[in-house]
Amino acid sequence: MNSTLTRRTALAAIAVCAAPAGFAQGAFPSKPLRVIVPQPPGGGFDFVARALGERLGRLLGQAVVVDNKPGSGTLVGTDLAAKATPDGYTLLMGSVSNIALNMGLYSNLSYDSLRDFEPVGLAVSYSYTLMARKDLPFTSLKDVVAYAKANPGKLTYASAGNGSGQHVLAAALWHLAGVNVVHVPYRGAQAAYQDLLGGRVDLFFDLSSTARVQVDAGNVKALALSGAERNPMHPDVPTILESGVAQLDLESWFGYFVPAKTPADVQERLRSELARVIAMPELQETFRKAGGKPLNLSAAETRALVKRDVERWSKLVRDIGIKAE
């Protein structure tokens, strides 16, 4: 009897080992997935996470639930994702902000973006628009820089807070241009807009998708774009590179990441299904209407872009001496 049981057990083990590769993958996912968004509902992080999650869930046959975990900028949610069980059921909504900038902003960061995360796929990028209050007597970034050089400390720029993307991008620009423009941090972009529209602050960088409303309404003047190319929403607005004042470009990309120790076959399943989502024409049109540039990158191109931005921006942030604390 015992020998019969042993033989059956051995045959069962052989059958499992001989199963096709797809059989093991078929077990994933067997329950809903969670996407940690390190920002409150309603912003760029949340918008992209939900747009991707809804469609990815349909392809995987399981719900993809967005879990907003804001706090300390993007630090709380990103740290939570880094410490999550690496089984493919917890993903992170990653962007330049939490993956690249934080590496330079915090001296004792609890995670390492390149060591602790693997990109699943980047879906869209957004440029920033530099806006001026509408009565500021300059029509170009070059004019602003010329005035700032002759009048150090006379111009001001707003941000959504210390260490925010708006702060880091502007500080990098003024640093590279060799001018002193005074930083005025606010608690969020809405408060910054109130003072920009009220003429109490001179300049403000914000994502082009959000800035478009104020630019199109004539409430502010658009001076420059942060992307390497012009934005179709603002075709007449030159890039920072075109202005000639600094060799600087930044687009804030958004995509899904998983903890680095997630099994390779699970990563590959997520990567292939997310690639199908990112390629959907209707999703790309949704991103374009919101002012974004849909991305179509291979896994190798994605890793290279993330690595480049982490290394470039963390170094620049440290060199300038920007701190989020």
What this model shows, in words?
Helix 3 links the parallel strand 1 and strand 2. It is globular, with a radius of gyration of 23 Å. It folds into two domains: 32-125 and 252-320, D-Maltodextrin-Binding Protein, domain 2 (3-Layer(aba) Sandwich); 127-243, D-Maltodextrin-Binding Protein, domain 2. It contains 14 helices and ten strands. Helix 5 packs parallel to helix 14 (299-320). 47% of the residues lie in helices and 19% in strands. Residues 1-25 have low confidence and may be disordered. The protein starts with a helix and ends in a 5-residue tail after the last helix. The chain has helices at 2-17, 21-26, 44-60, 75-82, 96-105, 113-116, 141-150, 165-177, 189-197, 208-216, 240-243, 264-278, 281-289, 299-320; strands spanning 33-37, 64-68, 90-95, 117-133, 156-159, 182-185, 203-207, 220-225, 251-259, 293-294. It is of the alpha/beta class and 325 residues long.
